[in-house]
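Session log. Operator J.P. requested a structure for one protein chain; no other inputs attached. Running the standard single-chain path with token output.
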Amino acid sequence: MKVAVLKGGTSSERDVSLNSGAQVEAALARRGHAVTPFDFDRQTANALVAGGFDCVFIALHGPLGEDGTVQGLCELLGLPYTGCGVLSSALCIDKAMSNRVLEQAGLAIPAYQEHEAREGITGDLPARLVEGLGLPLVIKPTRQGSTVGLTIARSEEEVADGLVLAGRYDDRVLVQRFVTGVEITVGILATPELLVLPTLEIVSENPVYDYDAKYTAGKSHHIIPARIPEPARQAAAAAAELAFRTLRCEGMARVDLIVDDAGTPWVLEVNTVPGLTALSLLPDAARAAGIEFDELCDRLVRHARLRVIGGGEGG
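Structure written below.
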């Protein structure tokens, strides 16, 4: 097929997206597809219209690529595209909204509050957040990924600093109770048959699994399956699948969780365009399930075509 790969863009995850896109391009070329890469900008839409493409592979991370915007563009242009549709993309990138939806589905979500950064930090706001949620707290932009703008705050002063940092990346900031436990991720494919990939435990050389730990070789390690009791693994897999279905995800997604000492899987967020680099989590989990990276990318492209041909919503 003739495939357009969208990468780069203007989000804070631009560099990671360029890397993901390059990996996808090479994989699809090895599978025999004719691949045209685009560093996404305002002119890309015109090129997509004129290009006669069979499919668009979305390798854009963060706003525009992961929030339903590009998905909606593809819908308007009548172009099949990989991954989740408009609704699920918009819900998943907005951590506060997805938390509300997942809570209604009965999933364990760490207690949280959302703050409008445009309102500024009043003198007693950090104290009120600590009083309501306790310490430590996780503070991050509501609509970003890759731990951009994230702070683990262990004092009121750090809460105040974290609010300022997160507010640089979004005008809405999520403040959430920190859950102690084993950090894991569960990838899910639905192309169209739903497959829950093996649980993957994340071990970071940094105190926090931050941007540096994610994208610097040797700064983090992936352990498959996660070193948690089997009942906890089953519970985490079930929670991830429920989150995927509840948020109406398609194609692929990665669900990040913390499993506490009692074996409870706490859902942190759902990523609809997870990293596709050599250091990324979902490709490792797929490989553990016997799906090599080239096949993974090919599956996503073929599913995008089938979803349109078969009359799927695509959003």
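Operator note: The mean pLDDT is 93.
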